[in-house]
Specification:
mainly alpha; f41 fragment of flagellin, N-terminal domain; two-stranded antiparallel sheet; 67% helix; Flagellar hook-filament junction protein FlgL; secreted; Flagellin_N; Flagell_FlgL; bacterial flagellum
Length: 323
């Protein structure tokens, strides 16, 4: 077959172009540290890498969700610690109020302190989180969950459903508690009233019972008034004890969720490590692959230089000088 000058020129140019493309592709592999950088390099491996990267992205989203949940629950547990301290202080005050040697002036002083504790407890019940949302309002985060009327009665006006968040592919977690559950509920096994009447579930109602008793004059009181005072204090004491048990139960639940989030984070970290290793394997980025890429790069560079030299030499021959 007779070859024209033009055909020889095109063949040599094509050889250089192909050699350069191959060398450039290997150079990209070397720079990226992996064999597969485009679907055309290995369609199957590229498809697997896409799925693994999607899994990684989802894992990162769940990790962010867990971080948010951890922040919410940590804030709640800090507030519940303060609630517990306040209730215990009230219990101590009620014990003092039962001292039969107190005067009305002494009881008024205790009433003032108790009112202060009630105000503190109401402030805690209407606490906001770091984002300015009411912590115990459920999904009604923009409204204070507890309202106090002119007579001092406190009612819950927040949402009825606690906020939940998906923290892993198969786990949706409640990341807060409604105020009704924390401040107006009873746990199983709560102390019953001796007369069989309903136990006081609303912690603020228990405080109000004690306030009413302390604000009722007892100096020179008759037996009926004195008995009513003692009965009110006793009922308030039982109510505060039940409320403390309930808050502690909620606190325990929050602690369990925080522990679970730590476990899920650990699992998520392990999953990320495994997926990263799998992506590395699929795309070819281990030490052996890197050595091979370097070797190929060097060989292809030599081949390209040889092609350049051959092309340059052939350009100087008479065949290329012919028209």
């Amino acid at each position: 077959m007779r070859l024209s000058t033009s055909m020889i020129y095109q063949q040599n140019l094509k050889s250089i172009t192909n050699s350069y493309a191959t060398w450039q592709s290997t150079g990209l592999q070397l720079a990226a540290g992996r064999l597969v950088n485009a679907p055309s390099d290995d369609p199957i491996a590229a498809s697997q890498a896409v799925r693994l990267n999607q899994s990684q992205a989802v894992g990162e989203q769940y990790a962010t969700a867990r971080s948010s949940a951890n922040s919410s629950l940590s804030t709640e547990t800090t507030t519940l610690d303060q609630v517990t301290d306040t209730i215990q202080s009230i219990q101590t005050l009620l014990v003092q109020a039962g001292d039969g040697t107190l005067s009305d002036t002494d009881r008024q002083s205790l009433a003032t302190s108790l009112q202060s504790y009630k105000d503190t407890l109401l402030d805690l019940a209407n606490s906001k989180d770091g984002n300015g949302n009411y912590m115990f309002a459920g999904y009604k985060t923009d409204t204070a969950p507890f309202a106090e009327d002119a007579d001092g009665n406190v009612t819950y006006v927040g949402g009825s459903t606690a906020i939940s968040q998906k923290v892993d592919s198969s786990r949706t977690m409640q990341i807060g508690d409604t105020g009704s559950k924390v401040f107006m509920s009873l746990t199983a096994g709560s102390t019953a009233e001796p007369d069989g009447s309903d136990s006081v579930a609303n912690v603020f109602d228990s405080i109000d019972l004690a306030l009413d008793a302390l604000n009722t004059p007892q100096d020179d009181a008759d037996d009926t008034t004195a008995a009513a005072y003692t009965a009110s204090l006793d009922k308030a004491t039982r109510g505060m004890s039940n409320s403390l048990d309930n808050v502690l139960a909620v606190q325990s639940s929050v602690g369990s969720k925080l522990n679970e989030l730590d476990t899920l984070d650990s699992i998520g970290t392990d999953r990320t490590t495994i997926n990263t290793a799998r992506i590395s394997d699929v795309l070819g980025a281990d030490t052996d692959d890197t050595i091979k890429i370097i070797s190929d790069y060097s060989q292809q560079q030599v081949a390209l230089q040889a092609a350049y030299s051959s092309f340059t030499a052939m350009q100087g021959m008479s065949l290329f000088a012919m028209s």
